[in-house]
Structures
1.
Amino acid sequence: MRYYTKEYYTLMMSLGVADMYEPVIDKDYSDEEIEELYQKALDKYIEEERASYDEPPEFDFDEDDDPEYIEMMRDELEEYENREPFDEEEAADDFRETYEDNLEEPDEDLPDWVRESVDKRILAMYFMPENIYRKLAGEDEANEERFEALDEKADEAYEEMRGDIPEDYEELMDTLEELESSYVLEASIGGDEIELKIEGWDDDGEEAIYTLRFDEVQVIENEGVEAKSGIDEDGDSFSDCEILYTEMYFEDGRPEVHMLFDNNGLKYLTFLTSDAFVYRTANE
C-alpha cells in the first residue's frame, strides 16, 4: 500500500478514543468501589436510553412532500404516541451484556499502556482514571495532527491513482472500492490465482455474496492472509478477515493490486495480475 497504509488505518482508528470514556478519580479502587462505579454507569446508561426512547420523532414538512411520505411520517408519529412503556430491565440487560463483552474482549483501539495500567472492569464500564484519561487525550490530539497530514497526502495520492487507471479498469476499481469494509468468507491464495469470496451488499441494500478472482497472478507480498468464517448462533455469518482498502497501479500495462486486510492483525497482500473477475454467487 502506498497511502492507505497500516499507519494510516491505525491512526484513524485511534482518533477520539478518549472521548468514549469518562474520567473518574485517580485512585486504587476496592471491589466495593468497583461495584459503586458499576451502579453509577448502569444508572447513567438507563437514563440515557430512556431519554432516547422518549425523544419524539422530528419531521420537516414541505409543501412539495408527496402524500406517501406524509402518511409515513404520520404512521411513525402514531407509533411513537402508542409505544410501550420504556423497558428499564431490557436496558439493564443490554448494559450488562456490553460490560461482559468488554471484559472478554477489551477495546482494541486503546493503547497497550492503558489496558495494562487500568483495571479492566473500570474500562469495561467506559470509565478511566483521570491521569490516564488526560495522557490519552494528549495522545489523541497528537495523533489527530499526524493523521490529518497523512490524510491530506492520501487524498492527493488517491486522485493521482484514479487518474492513472485505464478506462478498461475503472469499473473494476469502482467495484473493489465498493467491497472495502466487507468480510472475506473464503480466501484462496496460491499458484497463479487468487480467489476471494466476499460478503457485501447489492444495489438494493440486500446482503450478497461476491466472488473476486484474479488470474495469472504474481504475488509480490503476502503477510499470511487467510479467512476463517462460519455461522453464529443467531444464524448470521462471521469472519475474521475484512478488506479495508484496495489500491491499483500499473506496471507495463499490467495491474498491480495492493490490499490491506484486518485479519487477526493488519496484513498486506500485493500482486500483479492479468485478468480480474467479479461476479455474484448464490447466498449460502
2.
Amino acid sequence: MTRRICILLLALLLLSGTALAATLTVPDVLTLTYPDNWEDYGADDRDDVKDEYYNLGFICGPGDSDLNVSIDLYYFPEFADLRLFELDDQAAQDYAGMLMEDYENASFLEIRRVGDHAIPFAILEIEDSYGPCYIAETLTNGWDLCISAYAYVDSHYDASRALTEDDLEVFLGIVDSIVPIVN
C-alpha cells in the first residue's frame, strides 16, 4: 500500500511539471535557487573592477530563447552607510524612483521583500538598447545587488525577445529564493 502511495505521489509530481531546484552559492554574499534544468555558467570576472563592480554569476534556461539571469554587484560610496532593509517602505520606494531615472524606459513593478530579513528589492521592467529586461535591485552598505533577466529570440543571440508573464514568474522565484550569507 505504501509503495502505491509513493508511486502515485511521484507520478503527480512528474505530471505537475514541478522541477527540483539547483543552488547557486556566491561565497560571503548569497545563495539562491534556480530551475534544476538550467545551466550555471559561473561568474565572469573579465570586467570586474576591484571594490567597484563584480559579476557574481550567470544562469540560464536550457533553450536558445529561454531566460538568462545575471547577478552583479556594484559599489556606490555615497551610499556606504545605507542599509535598505533597515529602512521603511517609503525609502524603498524612493530607491526604486532613483533607479527608474537611471534606466531607459523603466516601469516600476513592485517592492518585493525577500526572506527572513525582508530584504526589499525594487522590481523593474526596462527596455534598453539590448531589449526588454527584468531587474531586481537592493542596496546595503553601498553595495547594489542587481539581478537582471532577458531572453534571446534564437540561437544567434543577436536580438532579444519580448518577456512574458511566465518569464516574470521564474525571475521572481529566483529573487524570492535569495538568502544572504551573514558573517
